[in-house]
């Protein structure tokens, strides 16, 4: 079965305790912002971007979002247990995770605090017909998210060639192929026009 999940990197912050207080074991950040961002630049120097609309999460399934490392393995917190909280505001989709409930979760917090997982990524799927492509700006506009699966601290920044997910790579591969075919067709038409002009001038 084809996996349509996509992955994006987000800011990761730790709630620092006041002097003399015990660590709160709270991790905060944005799973998504509503500002456009460049996903990658192709070999011709064309930058392909993405923008998530502020209403994209209005009907998204956020009922059971889990917190785990690098999108794999053990679950350390989850929204259905009340230890992962998600919300939307003017900036984007925010998350706050409580890693105080188990020893294993507190150890993950210590790894994050030590800088071993400097960024966070989230996994999601786009709803059917939930996106469109603006060819003038080479920007994919996502208007409807179907589901958010997890929020995951990651050891390395997302590599667009490996970390965006099959669905994203397939989407942009199709867009790029269509644009390339259109450019070739335009070049053919222009060559035909030039040939016709040369013939009529003889």
What would the keywords be for this entry?
alpha+beta, 202 residues, 23% helix, elongated, 5-stranded mixed β-sheet
Structure description:
The protein contains 2 helices and 13 strands. It has one domain (6-201). It has helices at residues 103-113, 166-201; strands at residues 6-10, 13-14, 26-33, 37-41, 47-52, 66-69, 72-78, 84-88, 92-98, 119-126, 131-134, 139-142, 145-154. The relative contact order is 0.21. It is elongated, with a radius of gyration of 22 Å. Mean pLDDT is 83; it is low at 159-163. 23% of the residues lie in helices and 37% in strands.
SSE series? EEEEEEEEEHEEEEH
Mean pLDDT: 83
Sequence of strands across the biggest β-sheet? 1-10-13-6-7
Helical fraction equals 10-25%
Shape category = elongated
Return Rg in Å. 22 Å
Number of strands: 13
Taking the alpha carbons of the first and last residues, their distance comes to 61 Å
Characterize the biggest β-sheet.
Answer: 5 strands, mixed
Unreliable spans are 159-163
Q: What is the count of distinct domains?
A: 1
Supply the number of helical segments. Answer: 2
Would you tell me the structural class of the helices and strands? alpha+beta
Percent of residues in beta strands: 35-45%
Oligomer: single chain
Task: Give a quick summary of the entry.
It is built from 2 helices and 13 strands. With 202 residues, it is an alpha+beta fold. The strands form 3 sheets. The protein has a 5-stranded mixed beta sheet with strand order 1-10-13-6-7. Strands 2-3-9-8 form a 4-stranded antiparallel beta sheet, covered by helices on one side.
